[in-house]
Amino acid sequence: MNRQLFDTYRRLLTIAEAGIFYGKDQFDQERYRELKEISLQLLSKVSENSFTDLQKITEKDEGYPTPKVDVRAFIQKEDKILLVQDAISEEWSLPGGYAEVGITPMENVRKEVFEETGLEVAVQELLAIFDTNLRGDIPQLFQYYKLVFRCEVLSGEFQENLETLQMDYFSLAELPALSKKRTTKEQLQQLVTTKELICQ
Predict the structure, then answer these.
(1) Exposure pattern of 144-175 as b/e (b: 16+ CB <10 Å)?
(2) What pTM does this model have?
């Protein structure tokens, strides 16, 4: 994949979406919709998604384009890190997902952990804010701010659910296949050793 082209086409898409959102004139609206369609066609040539897939993804996300917020829980037991296995990709990541409107980031992460693991957790501190735009080797259609919170397990055990197949604790030396769009080995290494808030 050509990352420079991907970023350029994605920028065209955000300009088109902003124009659709703010445009008042009917003819401007038509031009911006055409620009959006062209940018999706171009993106389909340099990404893993088809034109149809990209149309479906962006239809769900109308409005002024802004980064999305993703919350993750960093839970350790001795020197091991809690990861969950995604039900679709079967890859592993820190438990978490999209932040929902109307509840705080801390409430979001508690909710996500419970839904994906069955565990009740206490949120202790914000450890990191990761910007997916800074990962040139892992291009994504949308930009995400990943908020990672240190959490402590209070109670519970794994419950079957639609999102994850299982959970387990892993050392950095024995990590399973990670879902790199969600969690990378480098991020886990930083989270294990950090003494201050990571912003990158």
Answers:
(1) bbbbbbbbebeeeeeeeeeebeebeebeeeee
(2) 0.78
Q: How many CB atoms lie under 10 A from the CB of residue 46?
A: 18
- d(CA 179, CA 158) in angstroms, rounded, equals 20
Rg of the chain taking only CA atoms, in angstroms: 19
Contact 70, 146 (CB under 8 A): yes
Contacts of 29 (CB under 8 A, 6+ apart): 19, 20, 23
Nearest to 174 by CA among 183, 166, 185: 185
Residue 141 is predicted with a pLDDT of: 81
- What pLDDT sits at residue 171? 97
**92-93 and 144-156 strand pairing:** unpaired
Residues 81-138 pLDDT 10s: 999 999 999 999 999 999 988 899 999 999 999 999 999 999 999 999 999 988 877 7
Residue 17: both structure tokens together = 């979406």
Chain-wide mean pLDDT for the chain?
91
Amino acid at 10: R
49 vs 133: CA distance, rounded Å = 18
